[in-house]
Design brief:
Strand content: 15-25%
Strand order of the largest sheet: 5-6-7-8-10-11
CATH superfamily of the largest domain: Outer membrane efflux proteins (OEP)
Largest sheet: 6 strands, antiparallel
CATH class of the largest domain: Mainly Alpha
Number of strands: 11
Oligomer: single chain
Shape: elongated
Distance between the termini: 44 Å
Structural class: alpha+beta
Mean pLDDT: 82
């Protein structure tokens, strides 16, 4: 990979002036900060803590450290909440119970029921609903009954009867019309699946914007550091020109008031350095905050920025955006959900017709083993079938729901058209922005080169009295502005490449980031 380095350093122009001028320069306060080194490469990268990392690595660090992303990944993990809650209706339920009952009968009933009865009842069952609208239940109950009494109250003949009454049963229930074979449930399940994907994709799309913001914040630190360097350069060069003006005043080539003018410019330049230092500290502090790193981290005086225009196929990019953009996909899913809900509400106008079948077997026996054997072998079976119809003669709630669902379908169609246009315009704009920023960067680079040549020659001729100090000052301003403009446009060009990837929703895919591995698992 071809790599070229540009060092944004103060120009060192060797102007041979009097020895007094040199001694004065040695007494001047100089900016001690090391200038930023800009490295141009085919792919951008950043340097943190002394290590050069690619944008792919930088994005991973942002995902691992940025607190907004750390919070957001839990939102992604919880996006399936309503779907999982809906699935609870298909869970298998186990029921069990036990009870003891003791009864003493009145004398008039003792001839039929005995004097006392003690019973112990235990039961257990399983029940499960299915997405077909079917409910199945099965279980067993057993009642142990011990009855004591008199066979004949005249001779007080006692009896003691203990029996076991086991009952085994299986039942099935099926909705035949309104939710025929789970018609509504399956559509509701699909709605919740779509809603889960909508929320998940939207959050991940938002996280990609946060990642871009983190990278741009890093580059903003570089810009502010360069502005600090340029402010130091402005101060250094202003002092240099002021010395030349002072020499010209002594030689009679300039007026004394021109020296006063340059004294004021030095004061203004010193103020600019202080302001630039504060801006740099603020930018650095913000970056360290968004990546959740300590203030002691070493910010390397170097930035690696891409200066190569990537190959972009606008039509292919638009196709990918329609397949992957969260906002457009969510509009399409919302339309699908609206149609599903309309089907559910339309189906709600039907009556509820439920059919059920219960098969059971029982026995009453003194012997416990024999009683269960007879029950399980269906020796004494029982069959029961039922059909139940429920139909409200006037259901205004259902009519309103169906009407609203029909209108929501029309609303969703408008949203699909809206986001189709938004995605198309956004991708087109981002492609144009990449190309435009690249052209602007190239022009800014050319302008900076010409400004350096112009200032170098202008400063050389100032000593000869060919130009006024004000003209030199203007050329110095042009040089500083051209340097800042070049770096800012280079950063804008790199940022526009990231924004283009976000516009396609391919940021993580392009830089080979597996987002799913950062999402918390149960």
């Amino acid at each position: 990979m071809y790599i070229k380095k540009i060092f944004i350093v103060p120009l060192v122009f060797f102007i041979f002036i009097s020895s007094a001028g040199w001694s004065q320069e040695s007494d001047e306060t100089k900016v001690s900060s090391k200038p930023i080194e800009i490295e141009l490469a085919d792919e951008a990268a950043i340097v943190i803590g002394g290590f050069r990392i690619t944008l792919s690595d930088a994005i991973q660090k942002a995902i691992e450290n940025n607190q907004d992303i750390l919070t957001g990944k839990y939102d992604v993990a919880m996006s399936d909440t309503y779907y999982e809650q809906f699935q609870a209706k298909y869970s298998t339920y186990f029921n069990a119970g036990a009870g003891v009952k003791t009864t003493k009968y009145p004398e008039l009933m003792q001839s039929q029921y005995g004097e006392r009865n003690k019973s112990v009842e235990i039961s257990s069952s399983l029940a499960k609903s299915f997405s077909t609208g079917t409910k199945i239940a099965g279980g067993v109950t057993n009642t142990y009954s011990d009855t004591k009494g008199y066979l004949n109250t005249s001779n007080y003949s006692r009896f003691d009867i203990a029996t076991n009454t086991p009952v085994l049963f299986v039942s099935i229930e099926q909705e035949l019309l309104k939710n025929a074979f789970g018609y509504n449930d399956r559509k509701q399940e699909k709605i919740l699946k779509n809603s889960t994907l909508m929320q998940k994709d939207q959050i991940i799309y938002g996280l990609s914007l946060v990642v871009v913001g983190v990278i741009v914040d890093y580059w903003n630190v570089i810009i502010n550091k360069t502005q600090l360097d340029n402010a130091g350069l402005m101060l250094q060069e202003t002092r240099k020109v002021r010395r030349i003006v002072a020499d010209n005043v002594r030689l009679g080539l300039a007026e004394q008031f021109e020296l006063n003018y340059w004294n004021s410019l030095i004061a203004s330049s010193e103020a600019s350095v202080s302001r630039a230092e504060q801006n740099y500290r603020d930018a650095l502090r913000k970056f360290l905050q968004v990546v959740n790193m300590s203030d002691e981290i070493t910010m390397q005086e170097r930035a690696i920025l891409q200066n190569k225009l990537p190959e972009i196929n606008s039509e292919e990019a638009l196709k990918k955006a329609y397949i992957k953009r969260a906002d457009y996909l969510n509009a399409v899913r919302s339309l699908e959900n609206a149609k599903l809900q309309l089907d559910i509400d339309s189906n709600g106008a039907l009556p509820s017709l439920t059919g059920s079948l219960t098969v059971s077997s029982m026995d009453v026996n003194k012997n416990t083993g024999e009683s269960y054997s007879n029950a399980s072998s269906m020796k004494y079976p029982s069959y029961e079938a039922q059909v139940k119809l429920t139909y409200p003669l006037s259901d205004s709630n259902q009519k309103v729901n169906e009407r609203n669902s029909r209108w929501k379908v029309e609303q969703a169609k408008f949203q699909v058209d809206k986001y189709s246009r938004i995605v198309k315009d956004d991708v087109t704009s981002k492609v144009e922005k990449v190309n435009t920023n690249y052209k602007l960067y190239q022009k800014a680079r050319e302008a900076r080169i010409q400004a350096e040549i112009y200032y170098s020659k202008m400063l050389t001729n100032l000593r000869r009295g060919r130009f006024t100090a004000a003209v030199v000052r203007n050329s110095l301003d042009a040089l500083i502005n051209s340097r800042e403009a070049e770096l800012q446009l280079l950063v804008m060009f790199n940022a526009s490449i990231l924004e283009f990837e976000v516009a396609k929703n391919e940021l993580f895919e392009t830089y080979k980031i597996d987002v799913d591995k950062y999402i918390p698992k149960d």
